Amino acid sequence: MNWEAEEIMTVAAARALAGRVACFVGIGLPSTAANLARRLHAPELVLIYESGAIGAKPSKLPLSIGDGELAETADAVVSVPEIFNYWLQPGRIDVGFLSAAQVDRFGNLNTTVIGDDYRRPSVRLPGAGGAPEIAASCREVILIVRQSRRSFVERLDFVTSVGHGSGPGDRARLGLRGKGPVMVITDLGVLEPDPQTCELTLTSVHPGVDPETARRQTGWPLAIAAQVAVTPQPTAQELELLRDLVKRSEV
Amino acid sequence: MAELVGLAEGIAALVHDGDTVSLEGFTHLIPVAAGHEIIRQRRRDLTLARMTPDIVYDQMIGAGCARRLIFAWGGNPGVGSLHRLRDAVENDWPAPLEIEEHSHAGMANRYTAGASGLPFAVLRGYTGTDLVRHTSSLATVTCPFTGEVLTAVPALNPDVAVIHAQRADRKGNVQLWGLAGVQKEAVLAAKRCLVTVEEIVEELDARPNAVVLPSWVITAVAVVPGGAKPSYAQGYYDRDNLYYRRWDAISRDRDTFTGWLADELGS
Asked: Is B148 exposed, middle or buried (0-12, 13-18, 19+ CB in 10 A)?
């Protein structure tokens, strides 16, 4: 079957959730991937939405983080102070799944402003929401971001959520207890932090993507692994379930 | 004890120019009708607080009600930007808007401290982010038992909290269920509060996970069926996702927005 770059990105992200117990889900691409994973290989995956739905099992993709179906299908519904204080903060949640407008080479994220002046930005983005603490306290973080020079930048205009800070040891120094980003999934491939330097390194590309293309779409000199893997083609089942999910979610 | 009032009367009595006002609701049970009444009554210089300003705050900001916004995430969920909020921050239209920006965890803890009668709350959060440089209502505190350095956020005690709930009884005891957000904390943190409800019932029967706010912590209750639309009230009506998409087009342009304001709210 033919597929779009957006589709293989979502499929790759869904596959990355294999073996996880609980996932703190941001809205948009992360939510699509997490819901696809539940339909594929991870039917028991516990989806946690910051609106307070724990173990949500929506039949279609929620448009907002708090659509009614999330509460109706959840194992438990808790208040917002509780979801952050009792569930996220102590490190109970395996994996946080986030997106962002900008990401830098250490997986730090910006969802706040574009432009040099915080008080007078060229683009005012929605802001932090739950992201800073999801990035801090989930045991691991997976990022899903479309790759371009606009989004993969040398320097963030604003650090909203901390990935690996300015390099090795920074998370420990800052008292951030989770491991931070372990993987960035894009429409071109997958980047992982180098075990020594924490710098995001291209470790695989999607079929038909040249590593040089990924480098050209990155705003810093992208490190490329010695052996670059190729993402396995999306299966017919993966694509059918994804398309069905997207179709039934149309407003 | 809560007084049963009309919406216009309740807003006139409780919300004053210059107040700090929290219209809370985390996607569910957003007090939209109350926000519209604040616009109709032309309140000015409000400090609007909310974890997730969405389209009703976009409307209030565009209508010129707000001087300042305390928030964590200001967007049209699943759709994109709040264009009136952006226009105010980026271009001072219709008036400059000061912002005080937090994370969800920070805002939730600020209300919790407010409801608890404490001056501040403690959490693990914000460390390493640029919020620390730009938000003055953030500090660190050293744990007196372990020496660990943690983040402190000040209590948020609004002058008025406004929330929407499914129902109340004749005495003004309020019951809400489903995604309950931070409304209980906002009400208990505020000096005054107005609750709009879908209906008044004779008896509040038990509901799973229901939050009950007794009449004696509530200032006023107003019956406003459909008062959360286009958000939703679980058990009453669903979220109008199409309207959230339509708002993107209405709000993108100043003239379209002011036309909407005149047509819908006579403002």
From this structure: exposed
| A154 has catalytic annotation | no
**What tokens does A196 get?**
């020594």
| Residue B189 sits in the same domain as residue B59 | yes
From B65, B62, B56, select the one nearest B27 (Cα to Cα).
B56
- The yes or no reply on domain A5-250 and CATH 3.90.1150.10 is no
Using CB atoms, which residue from A80, A165, A176 is nearest to B104? A80
Which positions 136-165 of A are in contact with B (Cβ < 8 Å)? 136-137, 158-162, 165
Supply the angle between the helices A236-248 and A29-39 in degrees, to the nearest 10.
120
Question: Which residue in A124, A126, A104 sits closest to A115, CA to CA?
Answer: A124
pLDDT, tens digit, for every residue of A72-131?
A: 999 999 999 999 999 999 999 999 999 999 999 999 999 999 999 999 999 999 999 999
pLDDT tens column, A170-213: 999 999 999 999 999 999 999 999 999 999 999 999 999 999 99
Please return the burial class of A118, using the count of CB atoms within 10 Å of its CB with bins 0-12, 13-18 and 19+: middle
A133 and chain B: CB distance < 8 Å anywhere? yes
Domain of residue B187, CATH code: 3.40.1080.10
* Cα–Cα distance measured from residue A191 to residue A185, given in angstroms and rounded to the nearest whole number: 7
Helix, strand, coil % over all residues of chain A, rounded to 5: 25, 20, 50
**DSSP notation for A99-131:** --SEE-TT--EE-SEESS-TTS-SEE----TTH
Model ipTM? 0.96
Full-prediction pTM beyond 0.95?
A: yes
Compute φ and ψ for B221, nearest 5 degrees.
-125, 135
Length of chain A: 251
CA distance B85 to A188: 33
Cβ neighbours of B130 in A, within 8 Å: 112, 118, 158-160
* Contact status, residue B210 vs residue B177, Cβ threshold 8 Å: yes
**What's the domain count of chain B?**
2
> Which of helix, strand or coil describes residue B171?
coil
Residue A70 tokens read as 């999330």
- Taking the Cβ of residue B239 and every Cβ of chain A, the question of whether any pair is shorter than 8 Å is answered with yes
**Domain endpoint, select from B123, B154, B185:** B154
